[in-house]
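Inverse folding, one chain.
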């Protein structure tokens, strides 16, 4: 049997770039042209610890804007424990250390009268501002809502939450202000074959990205453990070299 040659240097990087080039990179309204693709992954119940850490890591002001009140750690914990991953959709953006740096909650109506309506909420880590993550999460949620038959996406936000209302306006939502609170309504177009294929493809791309980050994270942990073991062996061999 002829031995299989290993991939040439840079093979996987080139393959990954080709896959990314196949993703719809057209900027959403309000996004800068050339804005790079961000892997947005659907979250499950097993991600609750990361969700809790992300939300409790928000500044007091960000907690206030996200929940509409100065949520305490206990209130955030109750919110996370009550997340319904079967009925709703929760999306997240992970960094290379698998820390959740941004998340969105797409809550579908439980009232049959409003079965084609959904509500959107988002939070972004302060250190990740300026990257358009909120707008990308909103665009991603709109695509998923569209493919689930939602015709109206609703955003309830404090009027001082300028960033969220700006994202909604740029997407074409109608914003109505009522004192300290505002409501945005976005009419969602009907799903098409293109929107469904695009949604499935982007989900798969995000899953691949997550698995690559997971492997890299596990390798770094293994490498760190190996270095500790080696250092322990050195110390055992040369106990008198320690100061």
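Residues assigned per position:
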């Amino acid at each position: 049997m002829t031995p299989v040659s290993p991939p040439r240097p840079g093979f996987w990087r080139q393959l990954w770039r080709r896959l990314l080039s196949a993703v719809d990179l057209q900027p959403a309204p309000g996004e800068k042209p050339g804005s790079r693709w961000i892997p947005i992954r659907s979250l499950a119940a097993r991600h609750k610890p990361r969700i809790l850490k992300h939300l409790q890591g928000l500044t007091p002001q960000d907690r206030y804007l996200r929940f509409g009140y100065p949520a305490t750690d206990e209130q955030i914990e109750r919110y996370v424990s009550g997340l319904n991953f079967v009925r709703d959709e929760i999306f997240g953006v992970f960094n290379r250390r698998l820390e959740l740096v941004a998340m969105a909650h797409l809550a579908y109506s439980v009232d049959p009268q409003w079965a084609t309506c959904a509500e959107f909420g988002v939070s972004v880590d302060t250190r990740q501002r300026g990257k358009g993550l909120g707008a990308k999460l909103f665009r991603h949620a709109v695509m998923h809502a569209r493919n689930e038959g939602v015709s109206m996406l609703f955003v309830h936000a404090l009027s001082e939450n300028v960033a969220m209302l700006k994202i909604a306006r740029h997407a074409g939502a109608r914003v109505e202000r009522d004192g300290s609170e505002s409501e945005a309504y976005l009419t969602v177009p009907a799903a098409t074959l293109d929107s469904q294929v695009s949604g499935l493809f982007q989900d798969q791309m995000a899953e691949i990205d997550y698995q690559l980050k997971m492997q890299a994270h596990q390798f770094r942990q293994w490498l760190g453990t190996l270095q500790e073991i080696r250092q322990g062996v050195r110390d055992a061999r040369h106990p008198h070299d320690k100061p």
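The radius of gyration is 22 Å. Helices lie at 11-21, 48-56, 60-67, 73-81, 133-147, 162-170, 193-237.
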